[in-house]
Automatic annotation (TrEMBL):
<dbReference type="InterPro" id="IPR032789">
    <property type="entry name" value="T2SS-T3SS_pil_N"/>
</dbReference>
<feature type="signal peptide">
    <location>
        <begin position="1"/>
        <end position="23"/>
    </location>
</feature>
<feature type="domain" description="Pilus formation protein N-terminal">
    <location>
        <begin position="29"/>
        <end position="96"/>
    </location>
</feature>
<protein>
    <submittedName>
        <fullName>Pilus formation protein N terminal region</fullName>
    </submittedName>
</protein>
<keyword id="KW-0732">Signal</keyword>
<dbReference type="Pfam" id="PF13629">
    <property type="entry name" value="T2SS-T3SS_pil_N"/>
</dbReference>
Length: 158
């Protein structure tokens, strides 16, 4: 009898899984990756954009019917677009997530670091990584940027 009860409970649980996945798809949330931009076309000219939590995402009006949405950090917020009369054009859920398709996470004890491997592995900083990793990467990026934007080398005699 216990086996039958477990089987029925498992069957019920498994039958609910596709419904949950389908419900997420039907919400129509706009999906954006951290540090990536996405183009959103709207039906009417926009006058104002409101992001519920601007720490999660940013949006700009490229032209009257094209928005650029940029993911800033992980989370869910909302996006409201108003026309010049203050009427809503869009009121959407906006979910920002990470793109881990080419990431490798390395743990050294309790310290975590992330590598982007596409195809060679280079260090990147992700929220939750070891702060020492951030400090080292920040110094290297600053030096690289400084070198790239410095005056070009002078040729003797010119």
């Amino acid at each position: 009898m216990k086996i039958l009860a477990r089987f029925l409970a498992l069957s019920l649980f498994c039958s609910l899984l596709p419904v949950s996945a389908k419900a997420n798809q039907e919400t129509g949330a706009i999906q954006v990756k951290v540090d990536r931009a996405k183009v959103m076309k709207i039906a009417r000219p926009a006058s104002m954009i409101i992001i519920g939590n601007p720490a999660i995402a940013d949006a700009t009006i490229k032209d009257s019917q094209t928005l650029i949405i940029t993911g800033k950090r992980y989370g869910t917020t909302n996006l409201i677009v108003l026309d010049s009369a203050g009427e809503p054009i869009a009121d959407e859920v906006l979910t920002v997530s990470s793109d881990r398709s080419s990431s490798v996470v390395v743990y050294r004890g309790a310290k975590r670091s992330t590598l982007n491997c596409s195809p060679e592995c280079d260090p990147v900083y992700r929220i939750g990584d070891d702060p020492d990793t951030l400090s080292n990467l920040s110094q290297q990026f600053s030096q690289h940027f400084s070198d790239a934007t410095s005056d070009p080398a002078q040729i003797d005699g010119e």
